[in-house]
Prior knowledge:
Elements: H1 38-58, E1 68-73, H2 79-90, E2 94-98, H3 112-119, E3 125-130, H4 135-142, E4 147-152, H5 158-172, E5 179-183, H6 190-199, E6 205-209, H7 218-225, E7 230-234, E8 246-249, H8 260-266, E9 285-287, H9 308-326
Parallel strand pairs: 1-2, 1-3, 3-4, 5-6, 5-8, 6-7, 8-9
This protein binds phosphoric acid mono(formamide)ester.
Phosphoric acid mono(formamide)ester binds at residues 77-81, 151, 160, 289-291.
Amino acid sequence: MATYYPPFRKQSPYLPFGEQRTGRFYGKDILSVKQFNRADLEYIFGVAHEMREMVERIGTFDLLKGKILANLFYEPSTRTSSSFTAAMERLGGSVIPINEVRYSSVAKGESLPDTVRTLECYADVIVLRHPEIGASALAAQYARKPIINAGDGVGEHPTQALLDLFTIVSELNQVDGLTVTMLGDLKYGRTVHSLARLLSLYDVKLNYVSPEILRMPAEIIQELNEKNIVQKEFTTLDEVLPQTDVLYVTRVQKERFENMDEYESVKDAYVITPEVMREAKDRMIVMHPLPRVGEISMEFDNDPRAAYFRQMEYGLYVRMALLAMVLGRA
Ligand code: CP
């Protein structure tokens, strides 16, 4: 008779001798920002802050020594993939990198459930980027090890939203009371979908500035309306820039368009330059999940308000915190 493995078990009762695992995130999947409350965020950011101090003091340490991360990316990535690798290695663990699935058995037609069931035989946690909405949730149904969603199509990118919020907290020391303006491709930009949802846990005002065909999806606006978040939509930036505390710029996502004429008509809709930013506050920040393809001029990069390179570094500490947490070491 075949052995039955319960598909949803995420915590092994059998720990190696002497090993202790604790914490409310131990063994959990990270699939959507909807799973977090404010107390969770304070906890994550507290751990991320400690990770930052440790990296600055000693660089690499052995918190996750012996642990293995499988980085499974069905879509291109520079930041998410390499920051999870760096996070695991700075914690003393190691990584199975599958950054090009066409060189894996996926190219032979292996299904996502079978691929994650394979990788969990070798790894303790799986980070997954996939072009389809809900792919991480599907993987999590089959995996007994934690799945971390590194972007599912135009759905969510929860670890990006966590690092975005950690950037805001670290740079401006507050979230309540801020006016956040999201600019660009709000239809296909999964980072803004996740960030808007996460910000709805706070007392914020949200401005959405986009071309008509790239508006924030109605279901997200509806979801935040139900939480009484003030949201306004615009097609130009001028009206809202002077009141903005966080300007979150996004790339128009060429790869999501079926009609290239439509892409051409909106790709250069907004460009942030030093001249444009003359109208903004002195104490505010400009963020971008990156990569950028022209929507922020390089001439703005040396402005102290340009936080997008610092934002990537905050991502390392947040991802270190998440790995330590789901593996029961934070
Ligand atoms: N911000 C982000 O997800 O970047 P990558 O696509 O390079 O991972």
